[in-house]
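To: structure subgroup
Subject: Chain for Friday's discussion

All,

I'm putting the inputs and outputs inline so they're searchable in the archive.
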Amino acid sequence: MRGEAWEGDEVAERYFPFISAPRFTLREFARTPSMWFWFTKDAADLEWAMLQDPPPSPPSASSLGSSPFRWDFLWDGASAEEAEPKQTGLDAAEVASILERDLCERSYILTGSLTPSIFADSCKFVDPNNAVNGLGRYRQALSFLFQPAESAVEQVRVRVLPGGASGAAAAIEASYVASGVLKLPWAPRIAPWSGSITYLLDAEGLIFEQTDVWNITRLDAIRQTFTPG
């Protein structure tokens, strides 16, 4: 309009390469860090099986219509059930002891290395950023997040909460301080944060719901995730 020569778009061409990239699928974007940001432009593609394109299948009548995008392909490889027999009949104090060991010795909220026999397979796991239904999916999701050797869960305290009204689920509460390095090409380090977990137990003594609350905001967690270490 003003006769000026085109000098390029710094934001699209340098800082956020995906803006000016050709059309791509969500899987292609997720496995190609060089498309994400300026500081990941030299990172190698991710070879995770869950990010590879599935083999083509013939269209069916049900697939031709409009439907919401499904995110569950991310955890399709997760086992729906755990092979280890469940430890039913434990009282809340015994479950609390196992949880304390898994948090202290195995940092399970960062690694997924927990005792599956005290959780219901259909357990719901909620934190400020995510909600996952199913024990297998939760464990697989955690296995992709943190570098175990550079991450830690400390200052663990676990206690059984006083019983509520008749028929109310037994509950356990745990507090902790955690920190770590994420398994991303730019190795972001997440500064220590405090968390409080509430576990609800069913009539068999299995955990059917785990809710984690942090002392940092969701925005701060996301900001740290995209800040190079």
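Points worth raising on Friday:
The chain has two domains: 1-52, 92-225.
Residues 1-52 form one domain.

D.
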